[in-house]
Write a structure and sequence with these properties.
The protein is built from six helices and six strands. The chain is an alpha/beta fold and about 140 residues long. The strands form two sheets. It has a four-stranded mixed beta sheet.
Length: about 140
Amino acid sequence: MSVSPLSAAVDTNVLVYLTSPDAKKAQRARDVLLVGGVISVQVLNELSLVLRRKMRFSWAETHDVLSFARMFMTVVPLTLAIHERGLDLAERHGFALYDAMIVAAALESGCDVLWSEDMQDGMVVDGRLTIRNPFGREPTTL
C-alpha cells in the first residue's frame, strides 16, 4: 500500500526511533518521516517527554528533533472536536486516552493510514483509517 503524504499520520513511537541506535529502525523512521503526512500536537508533546525524561536529551537536542519532525509533517492542533472524537474512540475501541487523541487527529485530518508500532497492526478505525506497523516483519510500502 503506497500512501500520499497527507493521507498518513505518524504516532510518537515511530518518531522516537529517529534517535535509535538500531540503524534499521532509525532508517525506517526517517523513511516514514520523509514521505510526509500528519502529526498531532499530542505526538509532539509525547515525543518531547520521551526525549527529555527517558533519553535524557538536552533542551537544545529536543528542540532539534522536534524541528526536524515539523519540517516534514503537517502539525494538527488539539481541538475540541479532536478531544470529543478521541473520547468516543477510547470508549468504543478501548484505546488509551492519548492514543485515542492521536487516532482522532488522524481521522479529522482525513488520513487513511496511521503508522504506529504499539497499536493493533491492521486495525481499521471508523471504516477508513488503517493502523500499520512500519517495523513489522513485512513492512508496508510507504
